[in-house]
Amino acid sequence: MIKNSILVVILRGLSALLQFGVIFFITNTFAPKIIGKYDLVFSILNIFGSLCVVGMNHSIIYYSGVFKAENSSSSLWNVYKKMIKIMGMAAGLFFFMYLLVSKDFINSIYDEDVYTLLLKAFAVLGFHALLLLNIDALRALGKLRISELYRSILKHLSLFFFVFVLYLTHNDEYLSDALLLNSVVLSIASTFVVVKGFKKLQSDQYFTKKESSLKEIFIQSYPMSISMIAFLFLQSTDIILLGAYEAFDKVAYYSRAVQLTLLVSMVLHAVNTVYAPKIAELYSLNDEANVKINIKKSTRLIFIASILPIIFLFIFSDSILTLFGKDYAEASFALKVLMIGQIFNVLTGSVGMYMNMTNKQNTLQYILISALVINFLLNILLIPHYGLVGAALATTISTAGWNIYGSIYLFLKDNIKTFLH
After folding, report:
1. Of 251, 265, 396, 380, nearest to 335 (Cα)?
2. Which of 5, 127, 246, 254 could bridge to 274 as Cys pair (CB 3.0-4.6 Å)?
3. What whole-number distance in Å separates Cα of residue 204 and Cα of residue 155?
4. Residue 93's pLDDT is what?
5. Measuring CA to CA, how many Å separate 151 from each of 6, 9, 131, 271?
6. Which of 199, 129, 204, 188 is CA-nearest to residue 154?
7. For a pLDDT cut of 70, what percent of the chain falls above it?
8. Taking a C-beta distance cutoff of 8 angstroms, is the pair 10, 149 a contact?
9. pLDDT tens digit string along 324-362?
10. Do residues 147 and 8 make contact, with C-beta atoms less than 8 angstroms apart?
11. pTM for the complete prediction?
12. Which long-range contacts (CB under 8 A, 24 or more apart) does 15-20 make?
């Protein structure tokens, strides 16, 4: 497990370098106003694309562990097909709902003509959702390296290709379209790989097969979806609301600080990527002792791999942000505040992952929804007065709060220590 975790951390490290390179190129090539719109589309795409997935990219990992314990792994193919049906219906519904919204109303929120831009984003939701599902479907199939290749490497390389073409052809205004096209291309390519993996699994005659209905899949996935969307909103509400209160160039400055923060949290996600299927399997087997051992190992690995980057970004925040352009240093103090939130994130360990893999999705969703409400209110209160720093404070307070509460809850409920010890 530790070997696989290190491999994933290395791949996520390469991903961080690639992402940094793409961001560096974009911020030094395109105008902050264009980048601000790009960041808005990115946030909308992630939030509503994840709503289309309805948590199924997490539940497919759960099903993988359960089916493996029950010697019925080939049943995962039927689950995957039904997940695509649910996802397609959700994507169609969101696109239709957006069409019903007034163009003038959308444009009035941001004092910019962004209606058409967001219309394109809603049209691509299904593709983006499919990509999210496929990446974790590959994990469920045991193809961890290929999964991480798509998640950590290909999505940045292909995006850079499309962005570089825009640079060469002097079509800067299509930066957001490059992001959308990237999701379409990768979703189609990854689907071929996933289907091939399932065909190989289906040919194995040693497995028994189990059927899962659409209703069962939805019931299992829905709580994970609420939790995931709440988590994404915690990461994106500040950016979306900044767009309403501040100019798009300010959004671009703050978004770079957020992206640097997400690079740090990449370690936690990398470790969770490896340990989640194992936790689900051990929990299904009622192996409490080994669940505790694996959680302890994952928390320590997260801390060891994260603490130095956090300290580095905190101390050199101004210099690092200046790499994107001298004006980006305006988000320096906001980045320091966000790093404080990451310290709590690291110290409390894999709270969300443990809950999702041990049938505590409902509890997690209540915790995250509460944190989201607090986050939204804090953003509304703080951004008008403190701008970028206000947004960072809102995110840090709500993130630290739900992680601390969650770790205490699990200790009292399951006698499990997700926090560092």
Report:
1. 396
2. 5
3. 32
4. 94
5. 16, 12, 9, 14
6. 188
7. 88
8. no
9. 888 899 999 999 999 999 999 899 988 988 888 888 878
10. no
11. 0.70
12. 15/151, 15/152, 15/153, 15/156, 15/266, 16/263, 16/266, 18/152, 18/153, 18/156, 18/157, 18/160, 19/156, 19/259, 19/263, 20/263
Given a contact cutoff of 8 angstroms between Cβ atoms, the answer to whether 303 and 420 are in contact is yes
Residue 257's nearest CA partner among 307, 176, 152, 328 is 328
Residue 256 to residue 329: CA distance in whole angstroms: 10
Residue-wise pLDDT for 175-212, tens only, equals: 999 999 999 999 999 999 998 888 776 655 444 455 56
Reading the block at residue 366, the tokens are: 């209540």
In angstroms, the CA 15 to CA 20 distance is 8
How far is Cα of residue 289 from the mean position of the Cα atoms in its chain?
30
Could you tell me the two tokens for 81?
């097909």
Within 13 Å, how many C-alpha atoms sit on residue 111's CB side? 9
> Is the Cβ–Cβ distance between 220 and 59 less than 8 Å?
yes
Instruction: Report the C-alpha gap between 369 and 227 in whole angstroms.
Output: 7
Dihedral, CA of residue 236, residue 419, residue 347 and residue 227, to nearest 10:
0
- Residues contacting residue 23 through CB under 8 Å, at least 6 positions apart: 256, 259, 324
C-alpha atoms less than 13 angstroms from C-alpha of 194 in its C-beta half-sphere: 26
DSSP per-residue codes, 194-250: HHHHHHHHHT-TTS------HHHHHHHHHHHHHHHHHHHHHHHHHHHHHHHHS-HHH
Q: Name the 3-class secondary structure at 368.
A: helix
pLDDT grade for 240, boundaries at 50, 70 and 90: confident
**Whole-number Å distance between alpha carbons of 104 and 110:** 10
Supply the DSSP symbol for 350: S
Q: Where are the domains of the chain?
A: 2-414
